[in-house]
């Protein structure tokens, strides 16, 4: 039979094991809590994704900007002008053309208040933008620039040469003359527009120069807008330019 001492010894060992198990459990719980707390703290410190700020606008040019040689739409006597530097493959240019341009044309261009001037700025990462710009020039030779402009921006996924030809035919361009133009035309006008943008530190599209028309077919720029901004931003710029002109007169 076991002695009282041996019984007591086994009881003590059993109690020690229970205490050890309890301590081990507590250590696991404490370690797990620490891991959870650290994870939560790190999660809270991770910055949330946000929309990147729009690119900063270049400075308002002090010298009046010529509009010679560029396609225009609107009344030649309009007191205000907006020069658009655009890229036919640029998605933000497309957004402006589809969502904002129709209202601006209706309320400001068709009413004789604003003259619109278009300049090409095909970006290096848009390989189809320059060919589209050249096609637009050929459409312009037949008086169809703005029709072609609108149709291209509504079909930006169809800018391959053959697709451009189809779009040209849809706006009523004579394809024989169009094909001949595409084969022989120079890119000098597009290069001139690119150089103009570079001289003004414009490197993104669309960029808009808004200002007062001068007697010598130049624009005294008052405001620069970058990106497909809300329509109200353009309306505000037009109204401010009109007010400044009224005061100066």
- Strand order of the biggest β-sheet: 1-6-5-3-4-2
Which regions have little confidence, pLDDT < 50, spanning 5+ residues?
42-52
- Helical percentage: 40-55%
What's the CATH H-level homologous superfamily of the largest domain?
Answer: Glutaredoxin
Question: What is the makeup of the main sheet?
Answer: 6 strands, mixed
What's the arrangement of secondary structure elements?
Layout: H1 4-45, E1 65-66, E2 72-73, E3 80-86, H2 91-109, E4 114-120, H3 129-140, H4 145-153, H5 161-170, H6 175-184, H7 188-199, E5 207-213, E6 218-226, H8 231-248
Parallel strand pairs: 3-4
Antiparallel strand pairs: 1-6, 2-4, 3-5, 5-6
Helix pairs in contact: 3-4, 3-5, 3-6
Outline of this structure?
The chain is an alpha+beta fold and 249 residues long. It has helices spanning 4-45, 91-109, 129-140, 145-153, 161-170, 175-184, 188-199, 231-248; strands spanning 65-66, 72-73, 80-86, 114-120, 207-213, 218-226.
Write structural notes for this entry:
With 249 residues, the chain is of the alpha+beta class. It has two domains: 1-50; 65-248, Glutaredoxin, CATH 3.40.30. 53% of the residues lie in helices and 14% in strands. It contains eight helices and six strands. The protein has helices at residues 4-45, 91-109, 129-140, 145-153, 161-170, 175-184, 188-199, 231-248; strands at residues 65-66, 72-73, 80-86, 114-120, 207-213, 218-226. Strands 1-6-5-3-4-2 form a six-stranded mixed beta sheet. The model is unreliable at 42-52 (pLDDT under 50).
């Amino acid at each position: 039979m076991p002695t009282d001492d041996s019984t007591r010894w086994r009881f003590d060992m059993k109690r020690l094991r229970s205490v050890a198990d309890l301590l081990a459990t507590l250590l696991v719980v404490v370690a797990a809590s620490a891991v959870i707390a650290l994870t939560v703290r790190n999660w809270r410190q991770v910055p949330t994704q946000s929309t990147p700020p729009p690119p900063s606008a270049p400075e308002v040019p002090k010298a009046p900007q010529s509009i010679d040689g560029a396609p225009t739409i609107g009344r030649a006597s309009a007191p205000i002008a907006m020069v658009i530097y655009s890229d036919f493959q640029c998605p933000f240019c497309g957004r402006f053309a589809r969502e904002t341009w129709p209202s601006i044309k209706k309320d400001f261009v068709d009413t004789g208040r604003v003259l619109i001037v278009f300049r090409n700025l095909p970006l290096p990462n848009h390989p189809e933008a320059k060919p589209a710009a050249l096609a637009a020039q050929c459409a312009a030779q037949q008086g169809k620039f703005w029709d072609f402009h609108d149709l291209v921006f509504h079909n930006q996924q169809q800018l391959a040469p053959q697709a451009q030809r189809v779009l040209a035919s849809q706006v009523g361009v004579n394809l024989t003359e169009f094909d001949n133009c595409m084969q022989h035309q120079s890119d000098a006008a597009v290069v001139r527009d690119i150089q103009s943008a570079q001289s003004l530190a414009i490197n993104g599209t669309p960029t808009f120069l808004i200002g007062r028309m001068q007697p010598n077919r130049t624009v005294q720029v008052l405001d620069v807008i970058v990106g497909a901004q809300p329509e109200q931003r353009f309306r505000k710029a037009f109204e401010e330019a009109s007010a400044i002109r009224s005061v100066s007169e």
